Amino acid sequence: MTILNIAWKNLKERRLSSSLTAISVSLGVMLMVTVMVIYGLIEQTFNQQSIGYHLIVGPKGSPLQLVLSTVYHVNAPIENLPYRFYEEVKADPMVAEAVPVALGDTTEEGNFPIVGTVAEYFDVDYIPGKPFRVRGRFFDGPFEAVIGSRVAKENNWDLGSTLRLVHGGADVGHVHNERFEVVGVLAPTGTPNDKSVFINLPGFYAIEGHDKPLSEAIKREREFFGEAALSAEEMSNEVVRIRKDHAQLPLVNGFREIPKVQRDVTSILVNTKTDLAAPLYAGAMKKGFKAMAVNPIQPMRVLLQDVLGNVRTVLLILTILILAVSGIGIFVSIYNSMSERRREIAIMRALGARRSTVFSIILGESLLLCLLGGLLGLALGHVLVFAAAPIVEAKAGVILNPFSFDPWELLILPGLIVLGLIAGLIPGNAAYKTDVAGALAT
Question: How far, in Å, CA of 385 to CA of 402, rounded?
Fold first, then answer.
């Protein structure tokens, strides 16, 4: 019979105390695994490889809010920018690609975020080196939509399905009458695109209530560009001129876009012609406009390091303390049993067992408690991640892969072996020094 077999039989004789001790180890390991895996997934979601753009241009305000609303669709937009400003950004000689984004609405079913944009959005890789793939096609007509894989699955939508928008999200509750037809379903990306619905920007503007009153739109645009305010007469003439020009525009498939002055965008995704041009363009944006250009990586790095990083450190320290207490529990459990087992150990010694063998059996018990508790904790940790994934997704909009594995988990079992050896040293030493004659005499 091997040393581990003897150690296992000894633990089975003390089922209750052994089980409770192993469970305490498993709880500590479970929390550690959960923290490491979820933090690793969030870090992966918010790292540089998750974004295919150099800059996000939006109204001046919180850079973090701009990134969260534009890229991850988990925060309310700051404000809107005039469409004319988007055209100027697109025409800038430093800019290679400028993709407008209009946010604010959600789907009637499932409350998924609506992203008004142009077909060029799908020309840029969602992750560098990973292009969008679609079943069907990308939108072309004004009232066409492309949906993410998760939207299609949860709402049971497919090509040809129709959807309506809720103005301002579910809290507002006003449902628009216009219907959009699904013409494309994106392949899974593991990004917030999976839980988004993309509609053609002209159709987004055509929705009732999405266009500002003409006079208000003119006033706002002039204020944004620092132009002099118009008098009442000048405003009236400008409104008449714009309406007249708009009426002369040809219908395209029975549809005429609203005047440009009444359009606005939430933000603009920008790729500059070179990597070095991005910070130069962002610096130039600080002058003269009520807008900013943000490197999407920097705000997320601050969030990860200064906020989530500190939370992760605190949680890991707590789990390490839990494991340390579990190690003390193993020590106490085995050490307290030594007085009851002195005669048993003496008999083993009298039958020819060496001191080192007895010492090894005690260490084996400690190691088994740690390893069995650790393996149970690893399993429970991933079960907890699996259970938490849909909750994190629903509350924060961050898509987590419940089957993910953090490389740091490879250090847990070696760490538990060390913990088991330390916890078993003193009881093992007590067994090693057991007085055979004295123990048999009692």
Answer: 6
List beta partners, residue 198.
Answer: 115, 146
Give percent of the chain above pLDDT 90.
21
Question: Phi and psi for 254 in degrees, rounded to 5?
Answer: 75, 15
Can you tell me the distance from the alpha carbon of 436 to that of 139, in angstroms, rounded to the nearest whole number? Answer: 86
Q: List the one residue out of 328, 303, 363 whose CA is nearest residue 24.
A: 328
Read off the pLDDT band of 8 (50, 70, 90): confident
pLDDT of residue 136: 95
Domain boundaries, the chain: 3-46+301-441, 52-296
* Confidence band, pLDDT 50/70/90 cuts, at residue 440: low
Neighbours of 378 (CB within 10 A): 20
pTM (two decimals): 0.70
- pLDDT tens profile 182-214: 999 999 887 888 889 999 998 898 887 777 788
**Rounded Cα distance, 247 and 256, in Å:** 9
How many whole angstroms separate alpha carbon 218 and alpha carbon 280? 30
Reading the block at residue 139, the tokens are 């939108």
Instruction: Give how far Cα 13 sits from Cα of 19, 341, 343, 357, Å.
Output: 11, 11, 16, 19
State the angle between helix axes of 232-247 and 214-224 in degrees (0 to 180), rounded to the nearest 10: 110
Please state, in angstroms and rounded to a whole number, the distance separating the CA atoms of residues 207 and 414.
60
Q: Which long-range contacts (CB under 8 A, 24 or more apart) does 92-97 make?
A: 92/281, 94/272, 94/273, 94/277, 94/280, 94/281, 95/270, 95/271, 95/272, 95/273, 95/281, 96/271, 96/272, 96/273, 97/53, 97/123, 97/124, 97/269, 97/270, 97/271
Residues forming a β-bridge with 135: 185
Beta strand 165-167 pairing with 174-175: antiparallel
Asked whether 162 and 179 are in contact (CB, 8 A), the reply is: yes
Contact between 361 and 7 under an 8 Å Cβ cutoff? The reply is yes
What is the DSSP secondary-structure string of 350-414?
HTT--HHHHHHHHHHHHHHHHHHHHHHHHHHHHHHHHHHHHHHHHHH-----TT---GGGGGHHH
